[in-house]
């Protein structure tokens, strides 16, 4: 597992800490030099020219001005020393904070690694709590038995159920069908979600050259919803499918409407988990919170890819995002629809 899952590189924190230590050492060196300067200035300031034998010597006035300057320098040096002392303390405090942050990230990363190991040992798909999935990507839906608002799912105009063969089950009805809860009534956040026609649309288009007819069909169905700029509502159906993330993937994968939720998409009867190196356009990235259609790699390093998704903030959109998803979310794993080569 990479340390960049948290949106920050541990190497960067280490470099910052090293830089702070370097600054601290330079401050200590400056402190020593400052002490020598203060000692020299103190001796100069201690000279009482007015009562010395030099008072009658020509040029005494110049020496007196030099003494005044020395006293001014002494005052400035004292202020500089105080400032240096303050900065030194702050540097020490910042170094401790950086160390604490690094320890915290390492602890979190270790915990997630242990959880992933437990998941791999079980070799089975997670079950939905209460049978419904969460779509917390919205920022308002919650997990638990209610499944982030996926209870009482609206029926599609064609009255489809879950499951089915890999084929187009869309109805061709692009009107908005919303249940009694209203467009945003399913959400506990109270926020407004994009309406149909307000989605971001197609910002990046997958390359379909050389793809099988099945995979082209998956991408075409996903892009169709992005091109119509559908919004986001777990209580609404358009073209036979729920207007949310799992509704889009259900439509793309040729499942019957109104579509499964995120947990249902991970059921062994529907899909199976694959490795990152096995990903092909038409597969999906799924977590318990959200899901997107994988449209192909956007760079040779395989750190970014084209995702076709329906999110609570952008509606339906096809765009380039980091792999596996934005920092702070997940964990996400690649899945392939059963029966797709």
TrEMBL record:
> From start to end residue, where is composition biased (Basic and acidic residues)?
149-182
Region entry Disordered: which residue ranges? Answer: 115-211
Please indicate which superkingdom the organism of origin belongs to: Bacteria
The molecule here is called: NlpC/P60 family protein
